[in-house]
Amino acid sequence: MSVRKTATKLADGRDLFYFDDSEPYVSGEKTRRLDDPRPLPNRFDPVDGKPVEGPVMRQDPLTGDWIPMAANRMNRTFLPPADANPLGPARPGAEYQDGEIPDTDYDVVVFENRFPSLMETPETRGQIQEPQPVDGEPLFLEQPANGRCEVVCFGPDLNTNLVSMGPKRMRTVIEAWSDRTAALSEIPQIKQVFVFENHGKDIGVTLAHPHGQIYSYPYLTPKTQAMLRQARTLADKTGNPRINLIETVRDAEIRAGIRVIAESAEWVLYVPVAARWPIEFHLLPKRLVPDFAALDEKQREGLADIYLRMMIIANHFHRDQDGTYIPVNYISAWHQAPVAVEDGRELLGLHNEFFSFLRAPGKLKYLAGSESGMAAWISDTTPEKIATRAREAARECVELGAFDGLTVPIEWK
């Protein structure tokens, strides 16, 4: 896969990277526009004589969770009109446009979020900070939220998505995920890198343009810490301190077989045994790796195919009364192992959790008292019913030709 990466800076000093898969750019015959003509001040210029302060995070003394507090995000862009798309390419001939992409076209672009939840400042860059007491109370701890948030634009067209873009573009997106995972993992204070996509207004998406995000955290998230606890419990039970939780669970699902939807030579797709959401799939490599950067060429090629098939199945899961298929809202969450070995890197690995809030046509799964107040989940269906419907949807997709253009051999269950 030939992808050319070109780095530049936006007007306010943020990083931007073009990932090109088309000519004449992939060969280097031409280069995307690198200057940003917007009259934006440097984001770290003093304001009213005071240095810019980044977001902070405080530790919940009841749970130990770190909570970033990014008041700057209150003013972020929210559902702009179609003619003011900040993630689209610049309009040809326009003198000025408050969009993030300098060129009038692109393949895939990654740039630092203008309204980040986590951000390094010149004072915190590369620093591993020690928590400080809040209000003079040693129980209340605070430190800079000096991570990094990036946006990944999958393509220039507002009215498209990864499925319609096809496997070549999906493959380029995977290259971007891999490149940024490797680079962000090199930042000294970063504990883990999280790649994800929110899709649909019901999820809370404020920009309709096809895009995802990458968060690099200066702490281990609650979900990762919970998985590490399970991994260490498994190690104690088996007497194997190096046993990998993700690999062990994957192998158990394959042996059970009842919830497996599809397998390729490199990947397996199934509904997890304790699925929370009305639609929930897990996608894992058969040769487990810690993160995107560790995927080999065959794994990347296979992922570009089966990942799109997974989304196509989800979009054929529900049908309206007239028989029309209903495209679903979803979150696609890519878990990667912690950056450092001492944080449990060898115990976890790369896997995708794909889920939708849509439990039936026109009906959403809301997180009410038990889920939101106690983190005690209650499912409205069973994993076996989800898997059965997913297999039915896969067969319907084959009959409809919805998988046309996807050529990696798949074994449907």
- Across the major sheet, the strand order is 1-2-5-8-10-9-14-15-13-12-11-18
Q: Largest beta sheet, briefly?
A: 12 strands, antiparallel
How much helicity do the residues have? 10-25%
Name of the CATH architecture of the largest domain: 2-Layer Sandwich
Which whole number gives the mean pLDDT?
94
Number of helices: 7
- Distance between the first and last residues' Cα: 30 Å
CATH superfamily of the largest domain: HIT-like
- Count of spatially separate domains: 2
Strand content: 15-25%
Report the C-alpha radius of gyration, rounded: 22 Å
Task: Count every beta strand, where a strand is a DSSP E run of 2 or more residues.
Answer: 18
State the shape: globular
| Class inferred from helices and paired strands | alpha+beta
Do you know the CATH topology of the largest domain?
HIT family, subunit A
Low-pLDDT segments: none
Classified by CATH, the class of the largest domain is Alpha Beta
Cofactor: Zn(2+)
Active site: 211
Keywords: Carbohydrate metabolism, Galactose metabolism, Metal-binding, Nucleotidyltransferase, Transferase, Zinc
GO molecular function, one term: zinc ion binding
